[in-house]
Amino acid sequence: MPKANGGPGRVVSGGEFYSPIVSREKTQQVFLAELRQAKMCQTPRHEHALAYLTVVLTGDYAEYESSHSFELGAFNAIFNPCGVVHAGAFGQSGARLFTVELREEYLKQLGVAVSSTPLLDSGLGTMLWPGLRLYSAFKKQLADPLTLEGHVLEILAAASKSKPTGRTPPLWFRRTREQLHAEFKNHLSMAELASQAGVHPVHLARVFRSQLGQTAGDYVRQLRVRSACDLLRDREFPLAAIAAECGFADQSHFTRIFKRAAGTTPGEFRKLHSPV
Questions:
Q1: Are 179 and 146 part of one and the same domain?
Q2: Kind and range of the H or E element at 42?
Q3: Which letter does DSSP use for residue 114 in this model?
Q4: What is the domain count for the chain?
Q5: Among residues 22, 130, 233, 253, which is most buried (max CB within 10 A)?
Q6: DSSP 8-state class, residue 118
Q7: pLDDT in tens, 40-87
């Protein structure tokens, strides 16, 4: 596998990419672009002049740095600060990417310091969802500037430098998260989760909020929506069946929760992301 070691790579300017550009747009805050690499290939070592978010829409994509490697499938996202030297690699069928490059003057205007190291979001963090909402607005070309900037600011909030909390999650909390990943399609209660963890439900709710910044219910909804994203790529899978498969009460409930997370309905999402 390629490694981004040795001296600095070529500096890539804002709006410039090694992969073919399908569509692009620029605002006072960002450069937006959809890229499509149709076949397996590698990019040379390089660094970007601007900090940016990459959302993998389809296919497989990897980045290799001097000390880390990141392998991303569909609906994974990675944030890179400017100046990180890496090489890229596309899987056998290529990949389709959406990139959000943050203009330096915009960051200075806001007084925001972004993370100095890459951040990966495999679908349960806080970068993928605003990234997908921004992509949906970008493709529809219907969103007003205020809406677009709102999505950008959500991404910035997730990518900003933050002080470590110093709070190590207890072992029981890790087991609870594993249980949610395994059983998110079922209708679990806080009382059941707390009983199996051996803690009081109030304490479980408090620790969940302090560790993840959201409730257990919010976390389960993310798991369900993330699972639905993969199933929606199959055009033959009915929406009602996906709703049932992922643990939603019905198709209406599925549509409402999905649109809140992804910024579009399941049907519209399918048109944007399923293979032609």
A1: no
A2: strand 41-48
A3: B
A4: 2
A5: 130
A6: -
A7: 999 999 999 999 999 999 999 999 988 889 999 999 999 999 989 999
